[in-house]
Amino acid sequence: MMPSVQSTETVEAADLSLLTVCVWCPDPLVEEALMASLTAEGVTAPIKPQSWAHLQTILSTGHPDVLYALVSPATLPQIAELFRAIRTGDVGSNPFLALDVVTRYPQSPVLETMVDAGADDILPYHWPQHYVRERLVHLALKRKKFVITSAYVGPDRRRTPRPGDQPEPLFDVPNPVKAKAVDGISTDDLIAQIEVARDQMLAERMGRLGLYLARCVMDIRETTLAPRDGMVMPLTQDDKRIIAASTTINSLASRLDGPARWSASAANETIRLARLVMALSHEGTEHPDPKALQVAARQYLNRFGSTADTTALQN
Questions:
Q1: Are 19 and 65 in contact (CB under 8 A)?
Q2: Which strand ranges, in their side-by-side order, compose the sheet holding 170-171?
Q3: Which of 36, 73, 112, 277 is the most buried (most CB within 10 A)?
Q4: pLDDT at residue 4, as a whole number
Q5: Tell me, what DSSP letter sits at residue 179?
Q6: CA–CA separation, 267 vs 207, rounded Å?
Q7: 77-82: long-range contacts (C-beta < 8 A, 24 or more apart)?
Q8: Sign of the C-alpha dihedral, residues 109, 173, 162, 91?
Q9: What are the backbone dihedrals phi and psi of residue 149, each rounded to the nearest 5 degrees, phi first?
């Protein structure tokens, strides 16, 4: 059964015609139904990209508040990758826009994969009258807070807290649907809010990746780091997870003017750890003493890690 949301008064108060909506829906029948529902709510000119490249351009320069994307088993990998890239700030200018899935297949694996990719909502075809409006109002007023980890950025879907003494914090992020349709915030003011929050998100993610990287480094086999025949051995493909994390950290660092949530010292230590990894990988041209990597990782966890991290280091 589809969920019902909010009182009639609240639903009627939202002016959805103020939203900038982008529709990526190559299925003509589903597109027709969606366009009819949007038109009924005053959204008379949604953006309809003409190609995949055009969609990427719109996400970067068009400042949409909502993206409806058609998902089928065939397009699932492509759309899931797009949603993840939007959430991590790798695609588009707004990691916090509403990401809504439109699908004829509202079950696994489509449902689980798209939720894991950071989707806000699933719109199953066929939907009843006024359902699109109800879901947008629900998103405006009851959007889940975001969680930022080394592997995921998006609405928090956890029913219960994950085990551990230092759960990931939750963040209130800009909500374009509420800002435009309920609060009447201008596009320029919303963009300014998004830019600040985006830098905070990137800095937080860099810190989370730093912790992940340091933990991975401490798990590297001693034989990997031990010199052989007097030669320092670079990291191998078996350690590609930490090389990938280091690459991402360096990329994030280049996009940040100044980390907003992590202190400058934390950011500097994260970048230093990542550069040590890259120097020991096959990507590097010089291979310093590999023991320095684990020393740096230990220092990093002692300074920025959880109680569980520091306890593990003492064992």
A1: yes
A2: 153-155, 146-148, 170-171
A3: 277
A4: 43
A5: I
A6: 7
A7: 79/114, 79/117, 80/113, 80/114, 80/116, 80/117, 81/117
A8: positive
A9: -125, -175
Backbone angles phi, psi at 66, to 5 degrees: -135, 135
Instruction: Supply 126's token pair.
Output: 């066929």
Q: What is the pLDDT of residue 265?
A: 63
C-alpha separations of 309 from 42, 70, 105, 314 in Å: 53, 42, 42, 9
Q: What is the pTM (predicted TM-score) of this model?
A: 0.82
Q: What is the per-residue pLDDT across 272-315, written as a single tens digit (0 to 9) for each? A: 788 777 776 655 555 556 677 778 888 888 888 877 777 777 76
Instruction: Specify the 3-state DSSP secondary structure of 46.
Output: coil
User: What is the model's pLDDT at position 52?
Assistant: 96
Q: Is 93 helix (H, G, I), strand (E, B) or coil?
A: coil
Look up residue 232 and give its DSSP letter.
P
Q: How many residues does the chain have?
A: 315
**CB of 23 within 8 A of CB of 65?**
no
How many whole angstroms from its chain centre is CA 290?
Answer: 32
Spans of the chain, pLDDT less than 70? 1-12, 158-167, 221-239, 256-265, 280-290, 315
The dihedrals phi and psi of 100, each to the nearest 5 degrees, come to -115, 130
State the DSSP code for 231: B
CB 84 within 8 A of CB 117: yes
Euclidean distance between CA atoms 115 and 154, whole angstroms: 9
User: What is residue 96's DSSP assignment?
Assistant: T
The end-to-end CA distance of the chain, in Å, is: 51
DSSP conformation letters of 99-163 = EEEEES--STTHHHHHHHTT-SEEEESS--TTHHHHHHHHHHHHPPPEEE-SS-EEE---SSPPS
| Three-state DSSP state, 279 | helix
